[in-house]
Amino acid sequence: MAPSQIELWYQYSDIVIQDVTCKTNRYDMALSLFVILDENRNIRLVAQVLLIDKTKESHEWAFKQINLATNNIHPQVMMTDADPAVYAAIRSTFHTTYPMHCTFHINQNLIKKLQKLLGKRFYEFSTQFYATCNTLHKPIFESKWQTLINQYPEAKQYLTNTLYNTKEAWAHPWTCRKFTAGLHASSPVESINAWIKNYIFNSNISLCELAEKAAIPCISTQISIPSFMFTSIDKKLEEYLPPAILDLQRNEIRQCVFYSALQVNQEVISEFEEYQLPTNQHLEDIPDARQITASCMISDVNKNQIMSMWTVAVENKLVEKHFVILLTNGSHYCSCLSLINKGIICRHYFQIMLCSPTAKFHLKLIPSRWYYRNKDASKEPFLVASKFESDTPPIIPQHNVPFLTVIHQISQNSITLHERLTDIQLYGKITGLTHKATIKALKKKDMRIISILEDYLKDEEQNENVGGDSELDDDNELDGEKLDDELDDEFDDDKENHENHSFILNNPNKQTKSKGRLKGTKRIKASHEKNSSLVISKQYKCSQCGSMGHNKRNCSRK
């Protein structure tokens, strides 16, 4: 991992997509790629590993190397291609990571394993499998899963031993509450892999150098005209969000006018249970589909914090209804789960904002991973729709506003590089800057650098004397000695591992066939040589009569 890749890992490792390609490189080794989405929804390559094979042990080794490089910053969610070896390695190495499986690979594995086994019944099975996978409630999923096994006993072994054991990684009732930036397939890795093949064909460029060039846009970044109904909100969005995310958020604002909202009480919750969905589709692929039941939503939140409940429906299609809960802390919970899965405020909430001034907007509803770099929205005010601004002035918080989330998750706030720098990395950064400044000062004969360093040292000495922190100074000296030892060890390790450098990288398991005959073996004769290979003993030839078996001296024809 290059330093820029490590920084990207620190900031955007809340969702990491991993995939392993076949042995298609010059080393005849498996290539494992790790990608993320940055604040502008660009696909960025953050790690690359060459593996001897695709076993659990190899993937564990790769994950441990990432832990060493990133100071044990585990991804919050890692999406893979449903490989059991990768799944087991994540469980044993990334202890706080939630593994998810690519829906595309789930479909492909079903076709490979069960289509021939079920024959003409496969289409019917596929329809029921999608209906089970898209279930919104865990108990209903269990019931439908058992029915699926009873109806198709031929598929019982694969369904039970392979899919059911990893249901938390692909079934909707478990994955719907995880932030995935709107992704549910490993296609970003596939696009990076295809781009790499085209870019480095017959090239010696390293993967770390390639990572600096690989930033593939995931969506169009065209900026549209903001809506006049949320003028002040749009200005804040434009200030904090990059073009790609800003375009997605503005699109939700534009779509809100096609919906109608109605405040309801808890008695109508039964209307928001399961409903019929199109077959042969994953729920994530269906636009504006309800992702969770109302009863599950209420069980996820503290009932004492519920301020109001709303239903939101499309004007010309009253069947598709969404359920929205407004909470007293300024957050909300919508059954589309857009804010939880994608980090984007949905159109349904903006429609409620047009109906009531109690529904307020704050930038901390959006994860800070989508902000511009070094942006802090914790002191921004709560805003309402433009038509309520005259009656409801912006509420300026007295304290910093935390990340407004309904479901307790690991903080989505981005982490700057400085906060995650280890001692060795900080030492290297400071040394590099001082060396560069020294070279420039020598060229220009500039004496200012001496006074700058002397002033810094004097200030530090005065602070230490005033604070009386002599013990801290001793600790710093010990830390410095420890840091020097670590750097020496690292330098020695670099010497010892010199054979691992990329320009002499080879696969120890790859068997090469040498040219020519193997040592210690006889030459195999051709077909035309076999007849003339009879062994004839050495005999005399008579020069007198020309016969064989005697010489002239013993010839009988003298």
Automatic annotation (TrEMBL):
Q: Does the keyword Transmembrane apply?
A: no
Domain CCHC-type: residue ranges: 541-555
The record's listing under InterPro entries reads: MULE_transposase_dom (IPR018289), Znf_CCHC (IPR001878), Znf_SWIM (IPR007527)
Q: Where is the composition biased (Acidic residues)?
A: 470-494
- Gene Ontology molecular function: nucleic acid binding; zinc ion binding
Keyword vocabulary terms for this entry? Metal-binding, Zinc, Zinc-finger
Instruction: Report domain SWIM-type positions.
Output: 323-357
* Composition bias type Basic residues, residue spans: 512-525
- Region (Disordered) residue spans: 461-531
Q: Which superkingdom?
A: Eukaryota
Provide the protein name: Protein far1-related sequence 5-like
Q: Which organism is it from?
A: Rhizophagus irregularis (strain DAOM 197198w)
Task: Please spell out the taxonomic lineage of the organism that makes this protein.
Answer: Eukaryota, Fungi, Fungi incertae sedis, Mucoromycota, Glomeromycotina
